Amino acid sequence: MSVEKHKPFDSNTIESISKILGNTADGLTGTEINRLLQECKIENTDPDITKWKRLFNAFAQKQNKDRCSNAILYFIKQVMIPTKYINNKEQFDFFKIELNKILIFYGYEIKDDGNIRKVNKVETIAEAEKRVSRLKEKLKTRNIHKEIFKYCNEEIVSENYFHLVFEATKSLAQRIREISNLKSDGSTLIDEALSFNFDKQKIPLIAINKLDSPSLQSEQKGFMNLLKGIFSMFRNTTAHEAKIIWQIEEEEAIEILSIISYAHKKLDNIIYVKNY
């Protein structure tokens, strides 16, 4: 049974793959490269030069000899064996995301199990960014709520942290409006939707628990304060400050989205809703 020969990579692609795998900070060590080349039966033509150049020369020579990219793909598959990264998932994710940005142009994609599967290839950088997003993968790992992906996909793909936080906060307000049928916004919306006063027979439109004990009533009030804090700290700031003044880095954006995601998850489990 003949083995399928995969289309050769161009030299720029081989260089990009080599630089990712030989990356000084996140890449393979020199020892790992030498061992993997030997295991994959790829001649290590220049064992003493810079890591990525060592890989480039070895890959290029092997592909020229075989007239296909099979050996390079097999090398990548050996790199991506998940059990190697039990204590270093960050490196696995780095390789998967960065390599997929390149492989997807040829119709390949590394999956979570480390295997390479055929997918529909892309033709443009914009298409590749939509299919492969480092930030999206990190958010999925954090189990960020689906509503954030629904409202903020464009900002996630472009890794626009400033507007991502703004839109994610707006998604929370919009969801409360949809559940309660209210039209207000901000603190007014939260008070109208979640506040209660049983002495005056005021029942909240949205309740996150049965409110039948002081502890549960405190939880409801605490949730209201959390929502108001989110609006005040994240939405109001991004609405009034220029992006250049209020700068948000990736890790901070992820932490903020985790808080907003938690609020969305609380709204998933409301006990009852009383509409007008």
Rg of Cα set: 25 Å
Strand order, largest beta sheet: 1-2
- Elements, N to C (H/E): HHHHHEEHHHHHEHHE
Distance between the termini: 70 Å
Mass-distribution shape? elongated
Helix-residue proportion: 55-70%
Number of domains: 2
Number of helices: 12
Estimate the mean pLDDT confidence: 88
Total count of strands = 4
- Taken as a percent bin, the fraction of beta residues is under 5%
Largest sheet: 2 strands, antiparallel
Structural class: mainly alpha
Low-confidence stretches are none
Tag the structure with descriptive keywords:
276 residues; mainly alpha; 2 domains; two-stranded antiparallel sheet; 4 strands
Could you please describe the fold and organization of this structure?
With 276 residues, the protein is mostly helical. It has two domains: 11-132, no CATH class; 146-273. The chain is built from twelve helices and four strands. It has helices at residues 11-21, 30-39, 51-66, 70-79, 89-103, 125-131, 134-141, 146-158, 161-180, 186-194, 214-240, 250-268; strands at 108-110, 116-118, 206-207, 272-273. It has a two-stranded antiparallel sheet with strand order 1-2. The protein is elongated and about 85 Å long. The relative contact order is 0.09. The mean pLDDT is 88.
